[in-house]
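Raw record, unedited: Exocyst subunit Exo70 family protein
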Amino acid sequence: MKHIIIQIGRCLMHTKVWTFIGFTSAVVGLLCYALSSSFIHLFGNWNWLKIFLYGVFCLIICFLILLAMIWNHSRCFRFQVQFAFLVLTTTSVYSFFSDKMINGKPDAYSLISSASFAIMSLSLSRQTQCGFEVDLLYFFLGCLIVQLMKIKLQLFIVGAGFSYSLIIIRSYFPSTPIDVGPENECPEIQDENSVVLHVISLDLASNDIASSLMEQLRTSMKALQLENLHIVDMLLEQEKEYFDNAPSMLSECSLEGTLMLEALSLETVNNLQETVKLMLNSGFNKECLIVYSSCRRECLEECLVKQFLNSDNLTIKDVNMEDLGLRIKRWIKAFKVAFKILFPTERQLCDIVFFEFSAISDISFTDVCREFTIRLLNFPNVIANDQSNTTLLFRMLDMYETLHDLIPNFESLFCDQYSVSLRNELNTVLKKLGETIVGTLREFENTIRSKGPGNAPFFGGQLHPLVRFVMNFLTWICDYREILEQVFEDHGHVLLEYTKHDDTVPSSSSSSSSSSSSSSLQMERIMEVLESKLEAMFNIFNDPTLGYVYLMNSSRYIIIKTMENELGTLLGDGMLQRHSAKLRYNFEEYIRSSWGKVLEFLRLDNNLLVHPNMVGKSMKKQLKSFNKLFNEICKAQSLWFIMDETLKEEIIVYLGENLLPAYTNFIRKLHIVLKLEVKKPPDGYIEYETKDIKAILNNMFKIYRPSSCGRKRG
């Protein structure tokens, strides 16, 4: 609440605000007065001459209101005195005729015009010191109270309350109006309305007085600094809790700025405020700003730089990736501490110390924080120079998220005309970092496309490392989905430029990207490139059956990774359905290429054209071929790898449902043909019983468990 009041106070200290208030009040007051009964009583009914003259009068009044600040800078004391006399006589004559002619109750237009003219006078008293503004304010407030009392005596309370409010606001105005433009960051504050004050100002400008004030200011600043550092030490002891143990509490850290300020001694702050006010009213603007800004920068140096940004934290030359990751973490912590705690504290402190001098408060705050802000923004600017390192992508996303989330804090702190360059710098860094993130994703896609399969098949159908790497990469991306969508929303045009000039991009992807650009589309493009690489890798297998096992493992791994997190949401249901279909197709091709020949040897209709006396011999030959091929397949595939127990179980169940019945029927038929009894032990040409085949099938394949490549955010 205190901070809001300070912000309102700062707003009301700006002369441009009061120029607008004064102009608006004058327009409203003049219009309402023209429509009021008071005007009709004094000047009669409207005609074209009166409309013309009143219009010219209104234009002159509005023009003078807009140029009120020029009056203040005028050195013609005689002009100010004569103008004050003109206003005095005009209001006196108006009062005379108004009291004489108007006896009835005033209407609403009269009340509104009096209130508006009172506010107009208040705005003039904020902008200039010509000697008549306060008297004019009191005159119109008096008119308002009298008019309200004519309507009903009890309305005196309303008029008195309104008048008291304006007078209280007037009491908070500085003794001299201040207007600071960008071309003059340290304005001179002078009071030209009084010769006596001018002489006093000259006396105060003496070296002895100046030295005394400077020493008093340094003493106050030193006392403030000691208290500030003690409070910051206590705050930084809690830093680990905020940033390491409970990141979710970070949103509450903005309260710490207020708590830090409230923890300062009221006496210390008041002494500093009084000293600063005395120096500024005495004309020592530049000296005051130099001392104040220097001391506060030292305090920030102690709090921010030594704790978070020591000598080599913001450099990346000759730094390995692990150390660079730690430095980026440290930068994120520093940026959040700065814009959630330290800078808001500085902003509030400036508002309090320079309460009556809002423009100087803005200048001081910017001067104190500019160097540290530039240093903080320079680090992501340097990081953004490298878009070839995919590992660094997630750290860049962390930085982008930090910057993006704190834009409101940044803009609320650096909202004045003296901080335009800092706001522009933030936008430049965000743009560069966002474009680098998009470019890095594009480079990652190109890296996948350029990867070769290697010189030899992957042992036992295991996953190619590229599959694991890409899927883990996409899984990590899910943690950054929201901020990545924001990046593509702001900087997706960079990807469109890449796509437009890239002949390697499939036409479907190119057309979709040209109509829209999002993280989902980019992830789909990466998956398309990966799938095409998988298909190409199939050709390096001499044994197609092993190739189908490899493709099954790849599809199964992609499905598992997609279903265990939000990757399915990111890539869409189409990708999951596509790989499920591919898994089924490769499963069927594996059965056909591997077990199709085995089942062919167990077909009973193979002997339909054989002479009855030769059927037994033919079937024994079939069984012999079956035994040989079955043994070779089981021996080879017992060394192969399957992605998980579920896929292995699916294969064994399928073989059990198709191979075992065929084998059982074949052996039964063979017994009949050879006129053997079912319970008679088989001769040597029957190597396997049904239970033996089932046991052998259960021992096929090893379960492949790829090493975990998990990553935690932060």
